[in-house]
Write a structure and sequence with these properties.
With about 300 residues, the chain is of the alpha+beta class. The protein folds into two domains: about 1-110, no CATH class; about 150-280, no CATH class. The protein contains nine helices and ten strands. Strands 4, 5, 6, 7, 8, 9 and 10 form a seven-stranded mixed sheet that branches. Helix 6 (about 115-140) packs parallel to helix 8 and helix 7 (about 150-170) crosses helix 8.
């Protein structure tokens, strides 16, 4: 009887333990891990099927599982830094535990792995973009003339611009894309913002932070780039408009420029038929007090 009670308690406790699985999302990373003899999988497709079956089993038992992106190169560096043998399962477990706190992760909520993998990769790209843009902003340092932190000033200005852009948008769903091309690497950030029936705007904080950081970097470095937004609401045509980054601010694009951008094939230069039910238009006036003055020293 006592033994049965102990087994029952252990079963309950297992449901209380959250788990993390480090996932090899593509064939290239999978092949890189096959150099370790203790990694016994030899087919990526079967590996993914087995992971998905394990996730479903854990979910049916009431266990919560987080999925992390497993990078073989980062794993090798982690083992070298910590003195771990990379060819034993416990080292992979240690690395996965580290990913749970520092790397891109997503919770498993019963979705097919085919849907979860692209979302996980997107999350990894989002995090890497934010870290890279943040590093470049921090390297700008302080103004030699007045001592102001250039990165912080640009971030404040970008925050005010994003808030004003959302305030002037029509009600509904908003999809914003910001691209900065003058940095060592082209950076692209996306922000989704939905307005509910009460007029309140809902957005993902991490997504908003990345978007604002990329915009701030473009403003601070006066790099070529642009910001476009698409708004959607029931019963109305979608509206697309945007701005180019100009100096430390935004310059409105004309309706013709927006149309050309969306209706021209980037690679061939050929015209593409415009979408039906879409208006390509001039953005609303953001006002002259949209943001504090830029840094002109």
């Amino acid at each position: 009887m006592a033994n049965t009670d102990h087994q029952t308690m252990r079963s309950v406790l297992r449901r209380e333990i959250a788990g993390t699985i480090g996932l090899l999302t593509d064939e290239h990373d999978f092949r890189a891990m096959r150099r370790y003899r203790s990694f016994t999988f030899d087919d990526h497709k079967i590996y993914l099927q087995q992971v998905e079956a394990l996730l479903r089993t854990r979910a049916s038992q009431g266990s919560h599982t987080t999925i992390a992106l497993f990078d073989p190169q980062e794993y090798a560096e982690f083992c070298a830094e910590t003195g771990l043998d990379p060819d034993i399962p416990s080292s992979r477990t240690r690395f996965t535990a580290e990913l749970a706190t520092t790397g891109p992760t997503l919770p498993y909520e019963g979705q097919p792995l085919a849907d979860l993998v692209p979302a996980l990769v997107d999350e990894a790209v989002r995090q890497a973009t934010w870290e890279y843009a943040s590093t470049l902003l921090a390297r700008l340092g302080a103004c030699a003339a007045c001592g102001e932190d250039l990165g912080r000033a640009a971030f404040t200005r970008a925050t005010n611009l994003v808030l004003r852009i959302l305030e002037t948008a029509q009600p509904g769903s908003r999809h914003l894309v910001c691209s900065v091309t003058g940095t060592p690497e082209t950076l692209v950030a996306v922000l989704h913002a939905d307005e509910d029936a009460d007029g309140a705007t809902h957005l993902d904080e991490a997504e908003a932070l990345e978007f604002t950081t990329v915009l701030a970097l473009g403003l601070a470095t006066r790099s070529p780039g642009g910001l476009v937004m698409r708004t959607s609401a029931p019963g109305t045509s979608d509206r697309i408009y945007g701005w180019r980054l100009r100096g430390d601010g935004l310059e409105p694009l004309t309706a013709g420029e927006v149309f050309d951008a969306y209706c021209t094939d980037i690679e061939s230069g050929d015209l593409i038929s415009p979408e039906s039910g879409v208006d390509y238009c001039v953005p609303p006036d953001l006002g002259t007090d949209v943001a504090p003055p830029g840094h002109h020293h």
